[in-house]
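Ticket #4471: structure export looks truncated?
Reporter: QA, pipeline team
Priority: medium

Steps to reproduce: submit the single chain below to the structure queue and open the exported record.
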Amino acid sequence: MHENPLTKAQVAKKAVIEEIREKFEKADSVILIDYIGMTVAESTELRNQFRAAGVDFKVYKNTLIDLAVQEQGIKGLDEFLSGSTAVAFSYGDPTAAAKIITKFISKVKKTSIKVGVLGNEVLAAKQVEALADIPNREVLLAMLLGVSVPVLGKLSVSMGAFAGALVSILL
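Actual output as written to the record:
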């Protein structure tokens, strides 16, 4: 039997599906955005902000996103895959895209968050906004350090007093 070879269009679609699937797999968080109504200047500004933060931002066909996430095992996105969809993939800092898009939306009031994905969990728009309020990793580490330094200082003083008492008992 003779198999039908894939057309160029089918090969291109398979490549895009694989690209989307890989990005979903590698990303720490993903946000789907309805970008309808944005001007070219606003879209360029948003793209530049995402690029500066190391966030991939691209417009994909809804059907290709759906096929890619099905392969990835992510369920619950299909109801959000209609209309104009752009996707922001955050790597390294799961809050980066959420912070940028929520700030951008409050400024231009023309776009909206459709849904987010954190791991394989689907997040409602309100949950994505809450994700934006979480400090990034560096801030959290600084906060932890700020809390732990006084505790470590007190522990050091206590250990010094204990060592001094132990030495006086032994002598």
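Status: closed, not a bug. The export was complete when the record was re-opened. Leaving a note from the reviewer for reference: The first strand starts at residue 29 and ends at 34.
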